[in-house]
Design brief:
Oligomer: single chain
CATH superfamily of the largest domain: Gamma-adaptin ear (GAE) domain
Number of domains: 3
Strand content: 15-25%
Strand order of the largest sheet: 13-12-11-14-15-16
Distance between the termini: 47 Å
Largest sheet: 6 strands, mixed
CATH architecture of the largest domain: Sandwich
Radius of gyration: 31 Å
Length: 713
């Protein structure tokens, strides 16, 4: 149903002024009209913006003058200031007038009549050949939206029944916008010329005077404000040092996500250090590939182990576990059934969102062949099939469908997910690549918005053999935590696109790793030998930790690894006999058990035979085939040779540099003596051939970070 945007009930609905019954009726109508949703969202956001600025101004302390002013002068100052206050108040009412423009238009052309009855003062210059009429220019008021005091949002009538809360996706405004010209104390309202438009402009569009007696609409250059940031990141509690005697097993799921690194890069390139919780150290390390051995025979991956002195604390050791997945040539990649699930809601309008996603999808389409199929599902207030499953060699048809996509409306992500998986299931290729590629800023605000419900929905869909890749975009609206969880539970990976170059890396250079899963539910369990290890700490992977009982439980979900991917995990290890330098030694011991005698797990370091096995660790891995349900076990042991950091392999030096960089950005309590300067030095020593230039890019990023001040909080 198409809603008339001139209907004053629509504005009243947005501002919560309808009764509960009328609100429910209007809510159903708005849900079926994307244009009305955008109108409501913009109205709500502008009202919130006005209220937040008003509240902020009320909290500012009054300005106290250091000079004494005579009472007579104060009166004169107050009198002159009175008119300035009136002008400011009229400007505020002008803003509210724009916000309620649809209501004004419905009231029998009152604005037109006001303009006709109250013409601006004019002067006429006449000659024999022409008559020129010049309007006396009214003063232009510029409102600094982010700084100047404004009135609260439109109040609710005292007797009105509170309406249920309804929130839509919204747009934001540039901090400084030229507002309506107001002749303070003269016209008492909006200064305008000519008839008002028959259809209200979007709430975020402002009027400004472009010439004598002439008004024009101006869109703010940027719809998104950095000071209205709704990006969300899950809190990361760093893994502590654990004593090997009482906690000999460390169990976690692998992670091939890379989103954190490119997101951190975006912050630094824009001139600020990232929020601490945007830094996930394992994703930064795994952004880069490493020179590990190729798998043997038909094994899906190889396992490499090595160690060196820890560069930020030379009394500790640094243990590296490296996996390398089997490479698959492009011509041997199986047929693909891909469904592009693209967010086209209003928040995706800016160039770094939907336009970037469309460019990224074009890159991927260019790599597909006739054996591949592509469908495009879009979602905003609702969802729809923009392109039915189409052969990969019909590139013009696919690209035309991409080009036609426009952003607008709210974000019903769950409905889009349902449709995308249905399309994928309807075109399922047995033995092929079946994958949904979700591109969004993650702002799900209509339909199933609860994160837990979304995750359960994705988990259920993944059981059908269709995997999920998530491409995050955007800045101030990025729902990082949601997208990370969806990718994890959808048996896929999560990448953040901060540029077209990053899209090319993910969707062209690493296309097989992005699309083709070699092994799923990959788990690692490391057993530390207390005779050689006093304590240890896994660097990163905080969101991937598993219970020791989960390792052999095939019902527990874990990470996936794609063709050609490398996975790296680092442990900081305190050698046995470290004494007071062992961070875990300061942790109070657990009280003795009352109902059972201590078992082997309750042993102390003193009870360990120092003449036992020379091995430092034994590493076990479990994985399933992409279409399998039973895991397979691989096991390797490792003995530390005591090598120094200067003699470490270049790859290990570079991985250490990235790990320390992440800890510095997080201001980690475990960063030791590391500095940005040391990070740059280690990375240069570990740069290697660097054919793609990614390591050189990291070194430059570390140099930039070195010059930036830490973010508050």
């Amino acid at each position: 149903m198409k809603i008339n945007l001139d209907d004053p009930n629509l504005t009243a609905f947005a501002l919560g002024e309808l009764s509960a019954t009328d609100h429910a009726v209007m809510e159903k109508e708005v849900a079926s009209d994307p244009e009305a949703q955008s109108f409501v969202a913009e109205t709500q956001q502008f009202a919130r913006l006005l209220k937040s600025e008003y509240d902020a101004d009320r909290q500012r302390p009054p300005v106290r003058s250091e000079n004494i002013v005579r009472m007579e002068e104060q009166r004169r100052l107050w009198s002159s200031t009175q008119w300035g206050s009136l002008a400011a108040a009229l400007a505020i009412f002008a803003v509210l007038g724009v916000l309620a423009v649809s209501t004004i238009q419905r009231e029998a052309g009152m604005v037109d009549k006001r303009i006709a009855d109250n013409p601006k003062p004019t002067t006429q210059r006449e000659s024999a050949s022409e008559t020129t009429v010049e309007a006396e220019p009214a003063p232009t008021i510029e409102m600094e939206v982010a700084q100047q005091p404004v009135a609260p949002s439109v109040p609710v009538a005292p007797n009105a029944t509170p309406a249920p809360s309804t929130t839509y996706d919204f747009m934001e405004v540039k901090p400084k916008v030229a507002m309506d010209s107001v002749a303070a104390g003269k016209t008492g309202g909006l200064a305008a010329s000519g008839p008002m438009p028959s259809k209200p402009a979007p709430m975020m569009r402002m009027l400004r005077q472009s010439g004598p007696g002439e008004m024009m609409e101006v869109d703010p250059p940027s719809r998104y404000r950095q000071d209205f940031n709704t990006a969300t990141y899950d809190k990361v509690e760093e893994n502590p040092f654990l004593p090997a005697a009482t906690n000999p097993l460390s169990t976690f799921s692998i992670d091939v996500d890379t989103a954190s690194y490119s997101n951190v890069r975006r912050f630094i390139n824009n001139g600020s250090l990232p929020p601490k919780d945007a830094v996930r150290v394992e994703e930064m390390i795994n952004y880069f590939s490493y020179d590990y051995r190729e798998p043997e025979g038909d094994k899906p991956f190889s396992i490499d182990l090595d160690s060196t002195a820890c560069p930020w604390d030379t009394s500790h050791r640094l243990l590296r576990i490296g996996l390398k997945a089997r490479e698959v040539a492009n011509e041997k990649r199986p047929a693909s059934n891909l469904v592009f699930l693209l967010d086209v809601s209003g928040s995706m309008t800016p160039a770094e969102r939907l336009p970037l996603v469309k460019q990224a999808m074009r890159l991927l389409v260019d790599k597909l062949s006739e054996k591949d199929r592509v469908a495009i599902v879009i979602y905003a207030g609702g969802s729809g099939l923009a392109l039915k499953s189409t052969s990969g060699n019909e590139k013009e048809k696919i690209l035309r469908a991409l080009e036609d996509l426009k952003a607008g409306g709210s974000t019903n992500g769950a409905e889009g997910i349902e449709l995308a998986y249905k399309v994928a299931a309807d075109n399922f290729i047995k033995g092929g690549v079946n994958r949904v590629i979700l591109a969004t800023d993650g702002d799900f605000n209509i339909g199933v918005t609860n994160q837990g419900d979304l995750i359960r929905l994705i988990e259920e869909k993944a059981k059908g053999g269709v995997f999920l890749s998530v491409l995050g975009v955007g800045t101030d609206n990025l729902k990082d935590s949601t997208m990370q969880k969806l990718a994890d539970k959808g048996n896929g990976n999560y990448a953040y696109l901060d540029s077209l170059d990053e899209a090319r890396k993910v969707l062209v250079q690493q296309i097989n790793g992005t699309l083709m899963t070699i092994a799923k539910d990959v788990k690692i369990q490391v057993e530390f030998n207390p005779a050689r290890v006093a304590s240890y700490r896994l660097i990163g992977y905080e969101k991937r930790m598993l219970r020791k009982e989960d390792f052999n439980n095939d019902k527990v979900d874990a990470g996936e690894i794609g063709a050609g991917h490398t996975v790296t995990a680092l442990y900081e290890v305190v050698p046995a006999g470290a004494g007071a330098t062992d961070p875990a030694a300061s942790v109070p011991p657990v009280d003795s058990l009352k109902y059972q005698s201590p078992g082997p797990a309750a042993a102390t370091t003193a009870q360990v035979d120092p003449k036992g096995s020379p091995e430092m660790v034994t590493v076990k891995l479990r994985h399933k085939k992409p279409d399998g349900e039973t895991s397979e076990l691989t096991e390797r042991s490792f003995t530390d040779n005591g090598s120094k950091f200067e003699n470490a392999a270049p790859d290990l030096k570079f991985a250490a540099a990235v790990a320390e960089f992440g800890m510095l950005l997080r201001d980690s309590q475990f960063k030791g003596k590391g500095t940005f300067g040391a990070v740059i030095e280690w990375a240069q020593e570990g740069k290697g051939q660097d054919k793609a230039g990614y390591r050189a890019g990291f070194i430059e990023l570390a140099r930039k970070a070195q010059t930036l001040k830490p973010r508050e909080g």
